[in-house]
Amino acid sequence: MMRKKKRSSVDRTEGIAAPLGVPKEKKSRASDHSKATRTTDASESLFDQFVREAGVTLKYNGTANEISADQNVFQKRLQRCLKKNPRYPNVIQEFITGLESHIEDAERFRNSLLPCVPRLSEEDSTSASYQETLMRLLLGIEILQSAVVNTLLEKLPEFMFEGTGEDGLNVPRVIINQLKWLDRVVDSKDLASKLMQLVSVAPVEIQREVITSLPEILEDSQHGDIAKELNSLLQENTQLTVPILDALSSLNLSAMLLAEVRGAVMATLSAVQLEDLPVVVKFILHSISASDASEVVSDLRKKLDLGLCVLPPVLQASQSRTKTKSTAGPSNNPAASSGQDSISLILDVIKSAVRFQKFISEAWLKAIENVEDAEDHKVIDLLVLFILHSTNANLSRRGVERLLKVKVRGCLIQEAVLQKTFRGHGQVLRSYFPSILALAQNLLRSTDCSVFPFGGHMYKHAFTSFDSYCQQEVVGSLVTHVCSGVAGEVDMALELLCELVAEKTSEMVRYAVLVKGILDYMDNMSSQQIRRLFHLLSTMAFSQDHQGGHIQDDMHIVIRKQLSSTVPKYKRIGIIGAVMIVGSMGARRKGKEDTQGSTLPKETHRQVTTLLELVRSCSEVSPEAAALYYDEMANMVLTSKLDPLVQGWIAKSVLEDFQEDFVVDLGPEISGSFPLPASVMYNLDEDESEGGIAINLLPLLAGDISPNVETTSQRVDKSKKRVSPLYLASFFRLLRLCEEEQHQGDLEEIDALLGCPLILTDMDVIEKFDSLSKTEKEFLCSLLFYTINWFREVVNAFCQQKDPEMKMKVVTRLQNITYLQTLLERSLAAMQNFVPPLANFDCDNAEMLVPPSSAAPSKKGKKESTGKKRKVRANKNSSGDASQLEEVAEAEESQQELPEKEKEKESRPGISLSSYRPFFRELDMEVLSVIQCGLLSRSLLDTEMNSETREEVQLGPAELVFLLEDMWRKLEFSLSASTAKKGPFFKGKVDRTVGFSHLQQKRPREVATYCIELLPTLCTHLENCHNHFQTLLSDNQGVVDGPGLDVKEHQLMSTAYNLLLQVFLTNFSWLGFTQPEQRSLLTTALGVLASRLSPQDEELSLDQLLRRSYEYLLNFRSSIPSLSTALVLTQLLTILAQVAGSTQSSYREQTATLARQFLCQEWVTASGEKERGNKHNDTLHSLLSIYLNHIDDVLKAVEEIAGQGIPELMNTSKDGSSTTWPTLNRQTFLVYYKCMMAELEKAVHKIPPGKQQDNNEVQSEKLLTWNLAVRDFHILINLVKVFDSRPVLNACLKYGRLFLECFLKLGMPLLDYSFKKHKEDVQGLLKTIQLSTRQLHHMCGHSKICQDTGLTNHVPALKKSLELFVYRVKAMLTLNHCQEAFWLGNLKNRDLKGEEILSQRSQETDEDEDEEEHEQDQSEQAESDCDNRETVNKQGAEDEEEASEESD
């Protein structure tokens, strides 16, 4: 059947093709129709005849050509007709001439470019397959192909500028399409040449069409040549970038040619249009291999600046919207939209590349990781991190999370880059929202709180930039953080919620139900967290538009429930929450006041007063609750702008109640029976001693203590109000703030409280403290705490008053505080387990009841001490939050030579009040303004009102130290981003935030700004300290401990000097200065320092200000009194150098010189002893690290210390030190050793690895560097023979392994490539390292003999590295064809002294000869060629023994 069908088909086609002898009745109707449409005459061309005979009927008048034969049959017939023609091959030219004549008519030419239509007979009505065009059919005939190509390309210019016709046909594009996917190209080279000629003259559209079609036209043999031509064209014409890259990406190119093309593309990247960038990036990423991925991606990252690409269109669009607001909107912005689309396409290209090629994702991570300057990070970095995180690979996600943390922690990726990313690419980022949310969550859950703010910014930008779904997810995630219970995470999440509520109140109210759920998780929240929670809830619930009214009832229910609780923790929550609600409900409203001065509706006012009365009645049950209530009310008055009527209602009863409870009139005598005799003390208004007032402290304290002995039922008696001195300071704070609010800061109504006396006891009782009973001792200590806290609150109140007399009284009160603190220290030293009265009530009592100095310090003291001086230090270190003052004082006191009796006497007052800091009232930031006070004086009048004498008051060293220490603590808390700020994980630890409640209300910028306002005064005090010690040195001919030295004054001035520099350091270390919006603040601060050096006549640049500030601070180096102060100054100068950024290198040499000067200086205390101790060693380690980090040549510096300083030390007596490095003695040798080993290991990591393509000079330079490093390493390893203490051995084993691993990774590849050219250098290097590895092997044996787990823990890893080294040397020899020079042997286990280990000798009696066998088969020729490998042989022999010893 198939045969029959085939035959009929052939018959049918042959009948059509036969010009004569075919009966008319056998012709089809289509043939009749064709006859009707054209006229056949004797002038029919050869082209027409041959084509018709082959099976194609040419049509006219827009009708498609018909084909009646199979396409292959047509081509075979036509080729046979041409070849059998007598005029062959000339007939081909005639045929082409006929073709050209045929296509001269445009209509017929278009016809020949369109597919032919199959002619179907009546017998075969089945649909035929697609038919080629006439031109494609002719191009498939090899003998015609070249001529037809020429004809088509010559015809193409006629249609170049016509474009697409009415019939939708683009003739140039159709002509190019004829050449695609031919079965065979006869002359591919010629075709390529003609196409490129066409490109050189054609319009841009035709050029793009031709270039894009090249891979589909040309054969593979021409791909290389055409790629070179396209590469040249790419550099000449950037308009053709996209089509050229499209073509290149489809060509089959060699790796070398591809790299060359990629380099050219990369060079033109900055000139590429934004819409073309996706294709360019795609080509670059798809053309890289694993070997060159890092280099190419790094280069691409540098040149791909999406921020510059997208911002101009957006800005242009925003300007156009401003001009035509009525017609244009955000959606009608084609420029911005196209820009965002292009960015989106670029990110899709990157995403596709990293998803399917792992090495590309690793290269992106490495490229971002290698950026070392914050200014070099760009928008693309964050976008790529989001892309990498969005891929499904867990490894990629973890890598992104780790890298982002490192970059944020190092202040390299800053909020400015994040802000630019969201502002410019918000639409694009929407698709990466899950990754943004996950990364923000990861940052907030980090253990390092320095990354919290960046995670917060990510949340904030996501909320403000994305749609409502994303906003809900952001709020839900923040609520989850708040409920996690981790202090830092909770703080950051609450702060973010508060910011969002303040800025986007109407949007946040929608999600109030989500936030309300936090009320169920308040048990483990701190007071500040509860305060913030109720602040944001009440802001939403009581907003003026009443959108959040649906959560008001829930909040009232929770508050009433907590207030009625008898558990102090829940009552605390109730009081804080209720006061915060009052602050929101009672806030001043916008609008006119009523007749009573209120801006609130009457019902709201009634609710506020009712709630206040409820809180007050519930808090009177206990003094702690009452104190908390007064503190919270004071905080509300300070921070909230209350309605005048509410404010008046609060202030009305405060003054009357305070006078009634705590103030008494002075009489001739004080009645009552008290544990200690009462006395009126600290009266600053002597002229008003008769008829004046006093604070009734001692009687109230006595009355407060006595009920404790009675039954607890008496304490619950509510019929009579119980007055306790516990809330004296809190009540006074509320009174003072109400007065300030009522009288615009004037405290004249209560100024008598500043100078009025207190009813206390005579402080001479301290001298006979040991003779008092335990109750009397506790009573006296409590009295001192209450007195100090009263004075601190008084100073808080009156520190900002301008009256000179009041300023004098404030300074006098500070003197009272410092004096009472010395008495309190003496008293507490004799008290065991004394718990002071609470002063900060917004914390759990359980946190505060742990005695600061109990049994724990004694345990530490036993561990540390062998003498009485050590015991004193142990007591001082009892607090984990020891202050800088304590450190400096200890450094001074612990070195003083005192007689034995004085030592015993001084050993008792070892208590530091820094341990008791939570039990003192917090000083406000405004108190620090007292530092600005100079010499204050006033006239004292006699009875006749005549000026009799003049009283002068000045801020003394003790008061200055007191204020500076408080200032430093505040700055450390607010501006530093230490891990400790995250808060305690266990509830048993004291919360670091205790005592900083007021400070937590201020933002870091406010604190930094206030500190900068005080900088001129601080500079003056710093200069005074400098002058003091300069004068001291000049008077004593350069000797610190001269005769007649006031040791106490020296200690205070030294501490003040140290604290001043600490304040400068903490202030300038604030991470906020790295943000662009804080640059003006930094410039102001530097301007203050620069102006101290020389007055500024003109505005200076930031670099000039830095230079002058640096020089100003550098001038203080000559008067530094202690090593700890020297370290602070060096760190401060280092911080300033970091601010310089790109010009930082110019400061490195000066910093290194300064650090060396301090290291080469002998440091002694006021008593003449050398500084020593653990803290001294830590300080020395930090200073030495700074020196080695800033010196240009670390290897040379290490060699200088190890080769010169340590031999000097070895030749001195036991207590001697190096003459070149006086800080290097036997007590500090370990510090120097560990630091040098650590810095040496860091230095070799920075040596570039050896590459095969390195030239001879580069290899020599790297070999020289490694020779220096190995020589330093050998010197340090050999020092263990002299200094063989356990810590030295531990450091040697640890860093020895790290050095060896680095040598294997970076040094051995260099030896591989340098061996043939630098045999002598390689031999010397291996000889040196051989001696070091042998000593390390001996140390491993010594560790096993000692059975010290601390040492033996390092042995396995070190053994592994030593064995790897042996086989790595063998690999190097094999690579250089000298493997026959390698042999293995066994080395005996020896101890540090070189003696053989006996346990091994006994085991070797039968195997001695076997272990001495060598695999040594090298020939004489190998020895002559590789004579320098003898060293390697020895190395192999000694190190192979490690493998045998490993089995032991």
What does this structure look like?
It is a single chain. The protein has 1448 residues and is mainly α. Helix content is 61%, strand content 2%. The chain has a three-stranded mixed β-sheet with strand order 1-2-3. A two-stranded antiparallel ribbon has the order 4-6. A hairpin with an 8-residue loop joins β1 and β2. The radius of gyration is 45 Å and the shape is globular. It starts with a helix and ends with a helix.
Cα-to-Cα separation, first versus last residue: 89 Å
General shape: globular
Approximate helicity band: 55-70%
Question: How are the strands of the largest sheet arranged?
Answer: 1-2-3
Oligomer type:
single chain
Strand content: under 5%
Rg calc:
45 Å
Structural class: mainly alpha
Taking all residues together, what is the mean pLDDT? 78
Give the biggest beta sheet: 3 strands, mixed
> With helices defined by DSSP (H or I, 4 residues minimum), what is the helix count?
64
Total beta-strand segments: 9
Which residue ranges are poorly predicted, with pLDDT under 50 across at least 5 consecutive positions? 1-42, 122-127, 310-332, 708-719, 852-909, 978-989, 1400-1448
Summary keywords:
1448 residues, mainly alpha, three-stranded mixed sheet, two-stranded antiparallel ribbon, 64 helices, 9 strands, disordered N terminus, disordered C terminus
TL;DR?
With about 1450 residues, the chain is mainly α. It contains 64 helices and 9 strands. It is globular.
Write the layout of secondary structure elements.
Layout: H1 2-17, H2 29-37, H3 46-54, E1 56-57, E2 66-67, H4 71-84, H5 90-102, H6 106-113, E3 117-118, H7 134-139, H8 142-155, H9 171-178, H10 188-201, H11 204-217, H12 223-236, H13 241-250, H14 255-267, H15 277-286, H16 293-303, H17 306-323, H18 334-356, H19 358-369, H20 379-390, H21 394-409, H22 415-429, H23 433-444, H24 452-465, H25 468-482, H26 487-503, H27 505-509, H28 512-516, H29 527-541, H30 552-563, H31 568-585, H32 602-619, H33 623-639, H34 644-662, E4 663-665, E5 679-681, E6 693-695, H35 697-705, H36 728-742, H37 752-755, E7 758-760, H38 774-798, H39 804-829, H40 845-848, H41 855-864, H42 868-876, H43 884-893, H44 900-906, E8 935-941, E9 947-954, H45 957-975, H46 1004-1013, H47 1015-1035, H48 1047-1068, H49 1079-1093, H50 1102-1114, H51 1123-1139, H52 1145-1159, H53 1174-1190, H54 1194-1210, H55 1229-1245, H56 1256-1278, H57 1286-1314, H58 1319-1346, H59 1349-1352, H60 1355-1375, H61 1398-1403, H62 1408-1411, H63 1420-1425, H64 1430-1446
Parallel strand pairs: 2-3
Antiparallel strand pairs: 1-2, 4-6, 5-7, 8-9
Helix pairs in contact: 3-4, 3-5, 5-8, 9-11, 10-11, 11-13, 12-14, 13-15, 15-18, 16-19, 17-18, 17-22, 18-19, 18-20, 19-20, 19-21, 20-21, 20-22, 20-23, 22-24, 23-24, 23-25, 24-25, 24-26, 25-26, 26-29, 29-31, 30-31, 31-32, 31-33, 32-33, 33-36, 34-36, 35-38, 36-38, 38-39, 41-42, 43-48, 45-46, 45-48, ...
